[in-house]
Each structure stands twice: as C-alpha cells, then as structure tokens.
Fold this sequence. Notes:
This protein has helices spanning 24-31, 52-70, 121-134, 153-166, 181-195, 219-222, 235-242, 277-289, 312-334, and strands spanning 81-85, 90-94, 106-110, 137-141, 174-179, 203-207, 266-271, 294-299. It is of the alpha/beta class. It has a single domain (47-334), classed as Alpha/Beta hydrolase fold, catalytic domain (Rossmann fold). An eight-stranded mixed beta sheet has the order 1-2-4-3-5-6-7-8, with helices on both faces.
Amino acid sequence: MVDDPRPTVHLPARDIAVPASVSPEAQAVLARGVAGPPYQWPASPPPAIDDLDGWRQMVAAQEKAILELFGGALPPGGDNVQEIDLGGFPVYVVTPEDVSPDDRRVYLDIHGGSWTLGGGQMCRAIAVVTATLVGARVWSVDYRMPPDHRFPVALDDCLAAYRALLQEHRPEEIIIGGVSSGGNLAAALILRARDEGLPLPAAVVLNTPATDLTMTGDTYQTNLGLDIVLTATLRPAILLYAGGHDLRDAYLSPLFGDLGKGFPPTILLSGTRDLLLSDTIRMHRALHTAGVPAELHVFEAAGHGMFLGQAPEDREHAREIRRFVDEHWAAASRS
C-alpha cells in the first residue's frame, strides 16, 4: 500500500461518548455501535474491483439480509403501485390513496445503496415510503447498476426516466430527490438534463449525497468509525461504479460541475457523524456561492441514515423534507 503523502495529524486512541444532546431513542441507537448487517455497508473486505462474481454475491447477500430483516414490514403498495417499462429498466409509480388523480405534483425518486443496492423489491418498497413522506405521486427509478452496468448507465436511465416524466408533466410540477448515491445521481441528473437542453424541475432534495467521488472531504477520515452505517471506505464501490472514468467528471462528482446555470432550489441534509457530511456541506457551499437558493440541515450526532428511523430526530428530518417540497410545489403553482 502506498503511503499517503499528505501531512497528517496524529490523534491518540480515545473513546467517543454517546452525546446527551440527542433524544433517548437516538442515544440508544448510537450506544449499539456499528449497526452490522444488513445496515452496515460496504462489506469488509469487499471483493476486488475485477471480481464481478464476488460483487454479485455480496450484493445478493446484502439484499437478502435486508428483505429477511424487514419481511412483512416492507410496504407492498398494492393497487397504488404501477410499473412502467422504459426499455431495460422499470420505473415504479406510486400514488398515495389521499392524492387526487388531478394532483399534478410528482417526485422523481432516485434510490441509494452505493450504486449497487436497492433495486427491485427494495426500490418498490422505498417508493411507497417516499410517497407517504412527500404526500405526492412518486416515480422511482429502478436504474441498472454495477457490477453489470457501470457509469454512465445509471445516469442514462435516470435521464430517460426524467424525459419520460416531462412528456406527462410540466417541469414546475416535478421535484427530484435522492439519498446517498441516489443524491449523487440526482445532482448529476440536473447537470446532465441542463446540458442537454431540458427544462429543470422546481426543486431538488439531496439527502446525505455523495458529491465528490475523489473522497477528499474531511469527514471521510474524521467520521470513519463514528458512522454506524457507512463503516468502511467507499472507494471500492466508487471505483466499480466509475468504471475507469475520471472521478472529477461533473457527472460523477457534481461538486465540480458548473452549478450557477439554472440549478434549482435545493435542500441538503446530513448529520455530524455522517461519513458524507463533508460532501453535503461542500455541495451546499458551492451552490450558495453559485447563487442557488440552498438550505442545509445538519442533525446532531446523526450518521448516514440518521437514526435508522427509530428516533424523534428522524421524524423531524422527514418534516423538513415535507415542508421544503410543499413550499416549492406551492410556489411553482403560483408562477
């Protein structure tokens, strides 16, 4: 292994206490420490980049564990879920029961999972949860993923879904959102759609997004070991997804893109123990510097995935997203 030539600061080994500044429920989650499978990602050690069968086996095992853990708790959606075939990949369209057929609002959701997890049944279930969260119709892109499909296939699929959505909706009726690697794809999709001359949506939700795949952000180091979900370096998954392309390409690392040309209003969310906190706050600063209206919400002691849905802070997190999308859909309807 080549030594890192950068100057470093040596810190002695120390214990980090669970803070009393968060709810008892959040403290309980933190006290359990590393979440372990199936929450923990990536597996350690991961397969070699060229071991495609190894990646397929790891992804299959992870998804199997997640589905077994949640079992019947994963919402099926029933008659409220339709599937659209866009030629090579599906989109799940979820309409909550309390949303009128005449309601034109739609949320284009791009799932997370380090570009390798979260498809199929998981994508469908997440779409149902997201539809409840935003209180509107959701289009969820089940994009193709590594190891069989590398960059830019996932982004191509997201762009195809957005094009299809624009055939049925005005851009001001659309909000795009994503979590983690889905946040990466959501931001990249905005840049790609703009560069191809497409009208842009009313707003963007970037939930703990990966925005700099060169991994130069401070918290890739300082929060390693504190984040109970992202417990190891993301570099193997990043290199697998990138497929040899320059990691500073704006469609891979949106932080390095030209954000000042029409990027929509954006909300960004993270936590002080999130491995991707630096990616989130640096993207917020870049958007702010470019003159883009951008909100940043950083939650005390939260890691990647907040507190696994088990604490009041998770509900506060959800309320901020709901408020943001409601405000921007309302503003679009008045314009």
